[in-house]
Amino acid sequence: MKKMSRRKFIPAAASAAAGAVLTMGNIRKTHAQAKRHSAENPGLPLPKKICPVIDCHLHSPSTSTGKLQQWYPVQTTTEDFVHYLNRCGVDYGVAASVRGVEGKEKNDFIQANRESLALAAQYPNRFIPACLVNGRFPQESVRELIEHRTKHGVFWVGELAGYMTDFTYDTPGFKKIMDTIAEYDMICHIHARTEQIEQLVRDYRQVTFILPHFTPVKKRIFSRIAFVKENKNVYLDISGVSFSRMGILEYAVKEIGADRVLFGSDYTVNDPASVIVRVLNAELPTEIKKHVLFHNAKELIAKYDKAKKFTPFLR
Predict the structure, then answer these.
(1) How many CA atoms lie within 13 A of 184 on its CB side?
(2) 162-187 as b/e, with b when 16 or more CB fall inside 10 Å?
């Protein structure tokens, strides 16, 4: 192999580097082209679909602020959001706008709730809107809960993430919110460490809680599974970074039981397809996989959908 002299090598290397910089400079153009391609391409096939899929943990892009929960924005519009769910094989979902999950002011969660209602109206028979609240604004939060339950038939509260919106779950203000959730028979989907909400779960036995995430710490994962197993009014949503740990899904089903484990992805943060594949490839009977992906959420929704506004389209 003929060696290149230093005099020739340096200009050649500089030219290659310039080409790389040029490519990075066109990354937005390249990304737009890729999105057009993905609109025509359904993507790689997933393992054989065994049932419909309900994703109980979705964060839709904010239509008022453009906020996303993506480190690099790829699904930037409502249309992008829905298209990617289609590609992944997600048929239905419970959705809350990113604005209320992240925003710290009262207008953030109020506007986010309007966006979730609009999403459900724009895509009928597809999305169940969730209602968000903030413990720093109990009066406004209670008003939102009552209006959504009585006027719109909404029964799903959350995912609440107090650590992102500057409130905790042990304040008098949040107690008023929980009292309203209990009075109006609503579901509470709440993000917190297990030790942060143990008393809350025990104080409100009449409320169904959903704890999201297989956490990234082994000790906490096993602690969470044990807590859900012990408390029959609690479900586990399997989203989070550690769902791919081999054996953890099978262990959760074994300990908790197949009827209180729900499919959730945390999309638009995480990829729904990866969680679906993990369920489909799990060392579990097919009937249990169907319960995790569809039947458990469907039955829970049917229980709380008093007006039968959402249950009929879950087939």
Answers:
(1) 27
(2) beebebebeeebbbbbbebbeebebb
- Vertex 109 angle, CA 193 and 67, to 5°: 90
Closest among 66, 62, 73, 64 to 28, alpha carbons compared: 73
Nearest Cα neighbor of 104 from 162, 190, 40 is 162
Contact yes or no for 154/130 (Cβ under 8 A)? yes
Residues found in the chain = 315
CATH class of the domain at 53-313: alpha beta
| pLDDT above 90: residue 243 | no
Torsion of CA 286, 290, 292, 297, to 10 degrees: -170
Q: Tell me the per-residue pLDDT of 91-130, one tens digit each, with 9 for 90 and over.
A: 999 999 999 888 789 999 999 999 999 999 999 999 999 9
Tokens representing 110 are 């109020």
Q: For the chain, what are the domain ranges?
A: 53-313
pTM of the entire structure? Answer: 0.86
Q: CA–CA distance from 252 to each of 76, 101, 289 (Å)? A: 34, 27, 13
Q: Which of 92, 93, 132 has the alpha carbon at shortest distance from 112?
A: 132
Identify whether the C-beta of residue 171 lies closer than 8 Å to the C-beta of residue 135: yes
From 197, 205, 264, select the one nearest 227 (Cα to Cα). Answer: 197
